[in-house]
Design goal:
Blueprint: E1 3-11, H1 16-20, H2 33-46, E2 51-56, H3 60-70, E3 78-80, H4 99-108, H5 115-141, E4 150-156, H6 158-170, E5 174-176, E6 190-196, E7 201-208, H7 210-213, H8 224-230
Parallel strand pairs: 1-4, 2-3, 2-4, 5-7
Antiparallel strand pairs: 1-6, 6-7
Length: 233
């Protein structure tokens, strides 16, 4: 099968809330100094990938990460998509609460976004922004033609990335390549999905932070937004 697209889904760099264990949800927090450094290392890692399209959550921690990456790719327009936002966490946003209190709120607060709602918007982004590009490539080049894949950047959040990849596999939109498992999605982690002529994705990389590990950069090992979203997967 010919690969039509390679979609690089990256998590934003570190924020003060990440470091302090504060639930962000859809609060519009900024990258801290370390987050900017991490995004710079991510950009260096991806500078030789010839991106043609770029999407980002409209929250500034994701947008800033994408902008730092795209500094190596002048002329690529960055498109904001609300569907790529982190999970809306209601009254928990901006708080640092014990796990039992968080779990009680998740059970009892109607305003918190459900797993089904997250899955729906994440899959909607894929079907509305990515699949049409793959279909156009297939129309232009036909089946079986040797072409270079079109590279797409998407900057998002740990919880959203986790729930999207799991949902894509469960709904048959993608499969995980042998040896690829879904663990933690650390700051600036890279996940790659290849889309072939069948329009099905193949997750060939998940949560890769080798660009940080090579520089011995410390990473926040627990993302409370992602941990609570895990229960909705």
């Amino acid at each position: 099968m010919v690969t039509l697209l390679k979609v690089y889904i990256v998590r934003h760099g570190e924020t003060a809330a990440n470091k302090d264990g504060v639930i962000q949800g859809q609060l519009d927090t900024q990258l801290n100094e370390e987050g900017i450094r991490q995004a710079g290392l991510l950009a260096e890692r991806l500078k030789d990938v010839p991106f043609r399209l770029a999407f980002t959550s409209d929250l500034q921690r994701a947008r800033k990460t994408a902008e730092i990456v795209l500094a190596h790719h002048p002329g690529v327009e960055l498109q904001e998509r609300k569907e790529l936002r982190e999970r809306f966490m209601g009254s928990l946003q901006g708080t640092k609460l014990p796990s039992q209190v968080r779990k009680a709120a998740l059970r009892n607060e109607d305003s918190i976004e459900t797993g089904d709602q997250m899955r729906e918007r994440a899959i909607a982004w894929w079907n509305e922004a990515i699949i049409p590009v793959a279909k156009q490539r297939l129309k232009e080049h036909g089946h079986g033609q040797t072409i270079e894949p079109l590279n797409v950047l998407a900057a998002s959040h740990g919880g959203l990335i986790a729930i999207f990849t799991n949902a894509a596999v469960l709904e048959g939109l993608a499969e995980a390549a042998p040896g690829v498992g879904f663990g933690r999605c650390w700051n600036t982690a890279i996940s790659i999905i290849e889309v072939d002529e069948s329009l099905k994705g193949r997750i060939v990389k998940y949560g890769d932070i080798s660009h940080l590990l090579q520089r011995k950069v410390d990473v926040v090992d627990t993302n409370v937004d992602e941990v609570e979203t895990d229960s909705a997967v």
